[in-house]
């Protein structure tokens, strides 16, 4: 038993115990997975729907587990964030994504997710600069996706790191944006170039008039603030059409493609090339 909030003893329910054991097991195996090279990157295109051209690919990590098959990041990234393993995983992802992207057409950027914990590392900027230098990728082709929880902490240290990333020439995107109209305006305090509106908006775009109003407002404000907007999780032609009606043309979603392993990217890059 451990002490609860009011100093009373709370006992873990069997369910909590299971969850804890499961977390421990994942943590230990994940540590080994890094050593055994079991992590892999899948890529999902972000398409300019006006031209039908790929503008970027987002790197999404997968765990090729020898027994359990491909495990989604939804399962192990939260554990990695809690245990701090995300720092090593994140560094690996950055390095690999830069190496992979060098081989793509020049106009195709690569987008990499940065967890809030990575911003607590003193060597984050070094890690990014080294990944760029070693791979030879033009910094302008690297997009780093951060979340509001990173921005919200808004310490001098975070501000300084964001400024350094900007100075390196890499581009910052705000991922999973969902809090609506007014909070976008604080973005002009940060060197963010692009906002990815949360999947939930795409999902509700057709049915919910309220969601439609929010998307409209975000689109108008993004235009004023000179921010690129991406709609994530677009699965249907109707959702695509709605986004286009709101001047949102950068689209990521199953409608165009699921995330794919690198071996399967060539046909995508051919069919949506810029030429
Ligand atoms: P995210 O960064 O928001 O990535 C987009 C997620 O939405 C991906 O899930 C993608 O497969 C999924 N998705 C894209 N289009 C559609 C669609 O049309 N419909 C539906 N239903 N889903 C769609 P995935 O690959 O499972 O990744 C989940 C999350 O795990 C990511 O969400 C991100 O937060 C995290 N993650 C993945 N790779 C990394 C990484 O390298 N580092 C960090 N820190 N987090 C990562
Ligand atoms: Ca992302
Ligand atoms: Ca997202
Ligand atoms: Ca998300």
TrEMBL record:
Q: Which UniProt keywords apply?
A: Membrane, Transmembrane, Transmembrane helix
Which branch of life, at top level? Bacteria
Location of the EAL domain? 23-273
Protein name as annotated = GGDEF-domain containing protein
What organism is listed for this UniProt entry?
Answer: Methylocystis iwaonis
- Shown portion of the complete protein runs from 484 to 758 of 765
């Amino acid at each position: 038993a451990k002490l609860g909030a009011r100093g009373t003893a709370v006992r873990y329910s069997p369910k909590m115990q299971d969850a804890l054991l499961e977390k421990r097991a994942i943590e230990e195996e994940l540590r080994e997975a890094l050593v055994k090279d079991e992590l892999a990157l899948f890529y999902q295109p972000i398409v300019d729907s006006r031209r039908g051209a790929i503008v970027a690919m987002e790197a999404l990590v997968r765990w090729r587990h020898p027994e359990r098959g491909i495990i989604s990041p939804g399962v192990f990234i939260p554990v990695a964030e809690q245990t701090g393993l995300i720092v090593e995983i994140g560094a690996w992802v950055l390095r690999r994504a830069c190496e992979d992207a060098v081989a793509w057409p020049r106009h195709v950027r690569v987008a990499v997710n940065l967890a809030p914990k990575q911003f607590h590392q003193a060597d984050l900027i070094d890690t990014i600069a080294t990944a760029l230098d070693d791979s030879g990728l033009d910094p302008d082709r690297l997009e780093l996706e951060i979340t509001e929880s990173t921005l919200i902490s808004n310490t001098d240290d975070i501000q300084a790191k964001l400024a350094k990333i900007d100075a390196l020439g890499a581009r910052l995107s705000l991922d999973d944006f969902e809090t609506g109209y007014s909070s976008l305006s604080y973005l002009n305090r940060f060197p963010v170039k692009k906002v990815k509106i949360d999947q939930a908006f795409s999902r509700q775009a057709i049915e919910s008039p309220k969601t439609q109003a929010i998307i409209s407002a975000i689109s108008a404000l993004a235009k004023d603030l000179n921010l690129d907007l991406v709609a994530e999780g677009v699965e249907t032609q109707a959702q695509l059409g709605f986004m286009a009606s709101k001047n949102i043309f950068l689209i990521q979603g199953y409608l165009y493609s699921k995330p794919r392993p690198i071996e399967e990217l060539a046909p995508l890059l051919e069919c949506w090339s810029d030429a």
